[in-house]
Amino acid sequence: MISQYQERLRERFLSVPETPPPAPWHPVWSQRNPIGGLLGIGFAAAPDTGNDLVMVVSHEGHGLFDTLTGEKMARNRDPDPDDSTPDAVADLACPGLGPVAGTRVRIAGLFGGGLHTTTSDSWTLEVVSPEWPDHRVLLSTDGGIPHNGPHGEHWWHIFDSNYSELRTAGFSPSGNTLAIATSSDLALWSRQTTEAGPPVKANA
Fold first, then answer.
1. Looking at residue 196, what is its pLDDT?
2. Three-class SS state of 185
3. Tell me, what's the pLDDT at 1?
4. Residue 194: per-residue pLDDT
């Protein structure tokens, strides 16, 4: 039995369409990047620029992507079995690769953990389940639920995982990248600019 307040929230979340995040957020890829058997993701900072990098852990190995250009920077299809998934260690971390080799990256996803859900300038990300077990991801600047204002002004329904299991959703520590990962793909948005041109087509 749910309360009238909960029912109103449920109806509100079900009534609004999925919509892209507003400016200054822009997609890193022109479409969601398919990654079969995705287990989790984590963020690292590029040693030379400090820009956000995202590490992906899947049944197919480990990958590292630049969150400005979408470029795949490194790939390890055969990681050490002791470090192939983050559940073997207390901090849910896996060894970094490519430019962040020699460090460890905390991974959020199937085995637990989490990403940042707020930024220093008041962007907030929430996961709701008005049609359990499916999840919806909400982005807002109004402080979060209950989202009393009109949809599309201070809060946005940006993702519906009705086709795949949600693994994690959140911001990078810098607050410049927004990531949503499911068991089958990864979506990224950035609010940094790049001279690399329009979003590139994703490739896993």
1. 41
2. strand
3. 79
4. 58
**Burial label, 177 (beta-carbon count in 10 A; 0-12, 13-18, 19+):** buried
C-alpha–C-alpha distance, residues 43 and 60, integer Å: 19
Look up tokens 């109004």; give the residue: 142
Peptide bond into 27 cis (omega under 30): no
Residues 6+ apart with CB under 8 A from 107: 39, 40, 41, 42, 55, 57, 86, 92, 93, 94, 113
Quote the CA–CA distance of 174 and 60 in Å, as a whole number.
Answer: 28
Asked if 141 and 153 touch (Cβ cutoff 8 Å), the reply is no
Assign 3-class secondary structure to 61-123.
EEEEEECCCCCEEEEECCCCHHHCCHHHCCCCEEECCHHHCCCEEECEECCECCCECECCCCC
Query: What are the Cα distances from residue 186, in Å, to 1, 28, 170?
Result: 35, 11, 12
The label of the residue with tokens 């990098």 reads 53
Q: What is the DSSP letter of 151?
A: B
Residue appearing with tokens 């192939």? 84
Helix and strand numbers (H, E) in the chain are 1, 15
Provide the pLDDT for residue 43.
Answer: 98
The DSSP output letter for 17 is P
